[in-house]
C-alpha cells in the first residue's frame, strides 16, 4: 500500500471533501430554510438527513483522484484509503468546531474538545470505511459480479444509517443510564468490524 496514496486521501478528505461539504451543507440549509420556514421536523432532523447524503459521497471523491494517480489492487488498500479520507474530514471538521467554540470561553471549548475526542472513536473514519466498501461492492454488482452485493447494501446502509443516528436527536435522549451514544457507537463499531472481516476474507476481490 503506497504511503503517498494514504497521505493524498487524508489531505483530500481534509481540504477537498471538507470544503465542499461545508459549502454544500450551508447552501442546502439556506435552501431548506426558504422552502420550509419554521419546520419543527427540519429543525430536529435536518443535520441527520442532509449530512450523510452530502458528506459520505464527498468523502469518497478524493479517492477518485487518488486511484487515478496511484491504482491499488487490494480491497484492503481501498478500505484504508476510505478510512484515511474520512479521518482527514473528521480532523478538519473538529478544527472548525473548535474555532466556532472559542468565543464561548476556555472551559466550554475544552469540554467540547473532549466530547469530540470521545465521539471520534466511531465517527467519519468508520462511516467512510463502510461506505467505500459498500460502494465498491455495489459497483461490482452493477458490472454483473454478484459476489458481495448483499454486503455492499448492508455496509453502505450502515454508513448512512449510523451517520444519521449520530446527527439525530436520538443521541440526545436523556435516560437514567446514558445509553444512546454508547449504543450507536457500538452499532457503528460492530458494522465496521464486519466490514473489516469481509475485506480480510476477500482482499483479492479487486484482481
Structural commentary:
There is one protein chain. The protein has 207 residues and is mainly alpha-helical. α6 runs antiparallel to α7. The mean pLDDT is 92. The radius of gyration is 18 Å and the shape is globular. The chain has seven helices and no strands. The chain has one domain.
In summary, what is this structure?
The chain has 207 residues and is mostly helical. 35% of the residues are buried.
Topology:
Elements lengths: L2 H33 L4 H30 L5 H27 L4 H14 L4 H19 L6 H19 L12 H22 L6
Helix pairs in contact: 1-2, 1-3, 2-3, 2-5, 2-6, 3-4, 3-5, 5-6, 5-7, 6-7
**What is the oligomeric state here?**
single chain
DSSP E strands, number: 0
Roughly what fraction of the amino acids lie in strands?
Answer: under 5%
Radius of gyration: 18 Å
* Topology pattern, helix = H, strand = E: HHHHHHH
Q: How would you sum up the global shape? A: globular
Total domain modules? 1
Spans where pLDDT lies below 50 across 5 or more residues: none
Number of helices: 7
The share of residues in helices is over 70%
Determine the structural class based on helices, strands and strand pairing: mainly alpha
Give the biggest sheet: none
> For the terminal residues, how far apart are their CA atoms?
15 Å
Mean pLDDT: 92
Transmembrane segments: 48-70, 77-97, 117-139, 151-171, 177-196
Pfam family, one: PrsW-protease
Keywords: Membrane, Transmembrane, Transmembrane helix
GO molecular function, one term: peptidase activity
What distinguishing features does this structure have?
207 residues, mainly alpha, peptidase activity, transmembrane
Amino acid at each position: 500500500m503506497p504511503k503517498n496514496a494514504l497521505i493524498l486521501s487524508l489531505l483530500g478528505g481534509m481540504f477537498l471533501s471538507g470544503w465542499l461539504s461545508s459549502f454544500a451543507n450551508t447552501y442546502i440549509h439556506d435552501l431548506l430554510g426558504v422552502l420550509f420556514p419554521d419546520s419543527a421536523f427540519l429543525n430536529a432532523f435536518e443535520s441527520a438527513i442532509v449530512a450523510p447524503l452530502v458528506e459520505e459521497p464527498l468523502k469518497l471523491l478524493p479517492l477518485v483522484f487518488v486511484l487515478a494517480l496511484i491504482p491499488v489492487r487490494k480491497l484492503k488498500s481501498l478500505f484504508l484509503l476510505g478510512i484515511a479520507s474520512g479521518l482527514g474530514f473528521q480532523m478538519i471538521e473538529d478544527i472548525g468546531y473548535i474555532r466556532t467554540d472559542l468565543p464561548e470561553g476556555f472551559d466550554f471549548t475544552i469540554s467540547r474538545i473532549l466530547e469530540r475526542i470521545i465521539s471520534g472513536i466511531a465517527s467519519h473514519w468508520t462511516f467512510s470505511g463502510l461506505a467505500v466498501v459498500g460502494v465498491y461492492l455495489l459497483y461490482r454488482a452493477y458490472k454483473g459480479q454478484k459476489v458481495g452485493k448483499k454486503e455492499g447494501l448492508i455496509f453502505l446502509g450502515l454508513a448512512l444509517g449510523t451517520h444519521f443516528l449520530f446527527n439525530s436527536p436520538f443521541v440526545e435522549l436523556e435516560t437514567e443510564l446514558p445509553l444512546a451514544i454508547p449504543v450507536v457507537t457500538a452499532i457503528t463499531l460492530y458494522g465496521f468490524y464486519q466490514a473489516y472481516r469481509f475485506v480480510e476474507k476477500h482482499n483479492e476481490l479487486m484482481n
